[in-house]
């Protein structure tokens, strides 16, 4: 499994909760379960210190009253601040069970601040007085916890709806992840992320969070071709192809070949260069997958190479220059294709394929649907979109990845996983996780070559 833990839209979350209500769970009982789980996290964080809980008028505010009551029962000093009276029956009941004093204004100081003002249903900016109250209370506390989502962050997009919202140390997702937990810019405000289970059933069609792959050792009777022969088409700038080859060799494929017009003296001795005409090299029946794009160039020769790969490759990863040259008319053959665009390449592809969409996620989904390719739209919050509507979101990786050449490493990993037999969607998810883990192990200010050297350690963590 390479994708785990579903990610819900606000509408999907409401439907999942409604299924629990239809099965006999009351709103108040579900609130006790969700807020009780959150309270246990906060109790551990507070470690006996004073807690201030900001409650809104809806059920997120009701969660806050339950949290306050549970913390008081655990021995914490608790102050509740609520600028508005409860507006739902469950929130009214939660306030009644709290039974303590409720302040309507700020100025409260303490050790731990808990934001339960508004949750995943918020779709508009906070009114000025609520935004000021939120900022004031956050500034007066050393440790800050958001319940479900920080107030002022849009659940379905991660958009920050107000200026100068406070940053939190911990965000506790209730029941399931929301898109905002993994999408910028909202994700930057959330600190550590934890999910509190409440018994939600899986929802068909929901997005998934990319998780650690479950890889296996090569079979005892494996040989280089059985493990997967990967061809990497070189071009005008072969250095990028060499980076991709280095990472591909470390990501599981048994044999990595460069398909080049001529040998490059920089090529390591453990990488084979095939200088036969490309059509001849691509005709090898043992070939499992092909990567084309890193360092390819955009001249007539590059376009001819891309067309040959699209005609003959058994499975294909398209990256970099190949994406800039790709036209809809070139996709005339049914074969597994993974495209790995960054935002600029994704915009170019959307123009080429006549797609009008905003945002990396929506563009990737639209491109996958129209083209039939799996699309790994890479960036600080990468997504994988399938032609069938599947969507996976990558957890955050180190920002040290923002250096030239790391995309070539990612393409090499993905192509290697496809050469081992993974389908494009699975290969993309595996590559994202391995890429991020290799970067974590590489430390600070690494080079692309150093990143590639860490891929075996990331792969070993999946065995």
What class would the helix/strand composition place it in? Answer: alpha/beta
Question: In angstroms, what is the radius of gyration?
Answer: 25 Å
Which segments are poorly predicted (pLDDT under 50) over 5 or more consecutive residues? none
Q: What proportion strand?
A: 15-25%
For the termini, the CA-CA separation is: 12 Å
Proportion in helices: 25-40%
Strands, count: 18
Number of helices: 16
Query: How would you describe the shape?
Result: elongated
Quick one: CATH superfamily of the largest domain? Ribokinase
Strand order of the largest sheet: 7-1-9-18-17-16-15-14-13-10-11-12
Taking the sheet with the most strands, its summary is: 12 strands, mixed
Mean pLDDT: 96
CATH class of the largest domain: Alpha Beta
Count of domain modules: 2
Query: Per CATH, which architecture of the largest domain?
Result: 3-Layer(aba) Sandwich
Any idea of the CATH topology of the largest domain?
A: UDP-N-acetylmuramoyl-L-alanine:D-glutamate ligase
What can you see in these coordinates?
It contains 16 helices and 18 strands. The radius of gyration is 25 Å and the shape is elongated. It has helices at 10-22, 27-46, 59-73, 89-98, 128-139, 224-227, 238-250, 278-282, 300-312, 321-325, 343-352, 360-371, 406-419, 424-442, 448-453, 455-460, and strands at residues 3-8, 51-55, 78-81, 110-116, 141-147, 170-174, 177-178, 192-196, 207-210, 229-233, 255-259, 272-274, 287-292, 316-318, 337-339, 374-377, 383-385, 391-393. It has a twelve-stranded mixed beta sheet with strand order 7-1-9-18-17-16-15-14-13-10-11-12, with helices on both faces. Strands 3-2-4-5-6-8 form a six-stranded parallel beta sheet, sandwiched between helices. The two termini are 12 Å apart. The protein has 463 residues and is of the alpha/beta class. It has two domains: 26-205, Rossmann fold; 224-460, Ribokinase (UDP-N-acetylmuramoyl-L-alanine:D-glutamate ligase). The mean pLDDT is 96.
């Amino acid at each position: 499994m390479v994708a785990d833990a579903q990610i819900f839209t606000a509408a999907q979350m409401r439907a999942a909760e409604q299924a629990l209500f239809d099965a006999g769970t009351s709103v108040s009982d579900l609130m006790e379960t969700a807020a009780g789980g959150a309270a246990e996290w906060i109790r551990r964080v507070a470690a006996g210190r004073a807690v201030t809980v900001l409650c809104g008028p809806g059920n997120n505010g009701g969660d806050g009253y339950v949290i306050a009551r549970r913390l008081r029962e655990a021995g914490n000093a608790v102050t509740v601040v609520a600028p508005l009276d409860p507006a739902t029956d469950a929130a009214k009941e939660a306030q009644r069970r709290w039974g303590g004093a409720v302040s309507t204004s700020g100025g409260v100081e303490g050790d731990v601040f808990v934001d339960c003002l508004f949750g995943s249903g918020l779709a508009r900016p906070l009114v000025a007085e609520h935004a000021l109250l939120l900022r004031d209370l956050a500034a007066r506390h050393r440790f800050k916890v958001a319940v479900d989502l920080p107030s002022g962050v849009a659940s379905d997009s991660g958009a920050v709806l107000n200026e100068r919202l406070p940053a939190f140390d911990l965000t506790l997702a209730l029941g399931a992840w929301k898109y905002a937990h993994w999408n910028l810019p909202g994700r930057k405000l959330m600190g550590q992320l934890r999910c509190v289970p409440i018994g939600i059933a899986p929802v068909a069609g929901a997005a998934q969070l990319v998780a650690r792959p479950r890889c296996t050792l090569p079979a005892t009777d494996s040989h280089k071709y059985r493990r997967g022969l990967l061809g990497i088409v070189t071009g005008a700038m072969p250095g990028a192809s060499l980076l991709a080859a280095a990472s591909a060799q470390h990501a599981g494929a048994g044999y990595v070949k460069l398909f080049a017009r001529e040998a490059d003296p920089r090529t390591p001795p453990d990488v084979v260069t095939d200088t036969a005409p490309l059509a001849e090299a691509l005709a090898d029946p043992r070939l499992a997958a092909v990567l084309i794009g890193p360092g390819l160039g955009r001249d007539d020769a590059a376009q001819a190479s891309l067309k040959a790969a699209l005609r003959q490759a058994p499975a294909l990863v398209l990256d970099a220059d190949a994406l800039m040259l790709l036209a809809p008319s070139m996709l005339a053959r049914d074969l597994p294709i993974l495209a790995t665009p960054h935002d600029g390449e994704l915009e170019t592809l959307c123009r080429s394929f006549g797609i009008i969409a905003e945002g990396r996620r929506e563009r990737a989904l639209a491109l996958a649907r129209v083209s039939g390719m799996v699309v790994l739209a890479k960036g600080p919050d990468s997504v994988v979109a399938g032609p069938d509507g599947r969507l996976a979101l990558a957890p955050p990786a180190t920002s040290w990845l923002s250096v030239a050449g790391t995309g070539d490493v990612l393409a090499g990993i993905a192509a290697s996983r496809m050469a081992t037999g993974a389908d494009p969607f699975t290969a993309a998810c595996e590559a994202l996780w391995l890429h991020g883990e290799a970067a974590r192990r590489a430390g600070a200010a690494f080079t692309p070559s150093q990143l590639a050297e860490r891929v075996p350690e990331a792969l070993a963590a999946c065995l």
